[in-house]
């Protein structure tokens, strides 16, 4: 055993010296005095989400419901994307003209990698940390759909944005109990090596565009 490992284990044992014999984790009450409900007005929650989401190098635009189809078309044209994978239940209003929409009906990994990108909705978005969560529900598709293509355009309705993490987790309760896998997105996929050289697109889309629908 290495000296470092021995020292770590010794510290763990020392920290556990005052634990009564037979005590389990379930015997100790967990203090949950953190905030569970946000206090900001709805408009400020949306602004906070947009700001923090952009901090993760996502591109964020706010649009009205009426402007949404045009905004989708404009962004795809701007990116030069013409062939997009989508969940089979993506709303018809989002399927703008001039684009080949490829419904994901068990597309292979090679087929998903060959499209220009993917368009989805989301389950919930968290303003405090700018995170978008997909749970496989309506207009979201399976995990592979948003992990393999190099581009992701995500539509985030304002009513799905919450201020705090506990609020977001609470909204995901039914999906969690049903065993649905979650995908938490904080900007485009990125990693860095030991020299802190950032590389994007390693574990998911290289580019993330977000349309926040405010009404």
TrEMBL record:
Limits of the LUD domain: 101-213
Signal peptide start-end: none
InterPro entries documented for this protein: FTHF_cligase-like_sf (IPR024185), LUD_dom (IPR003741), NagB/RpiA_transferase-like (IPR037171)
Pfam families, per database record: LUD_dom
Gene3D superfamilies to which the protein is assigned, alphabetical: NagB/RpiA/CoA transferase-like
PANTHER family, per database record: LACTATE UTILIZATION PROTEIN C
Protein name (database record): Lactate utilization protein C
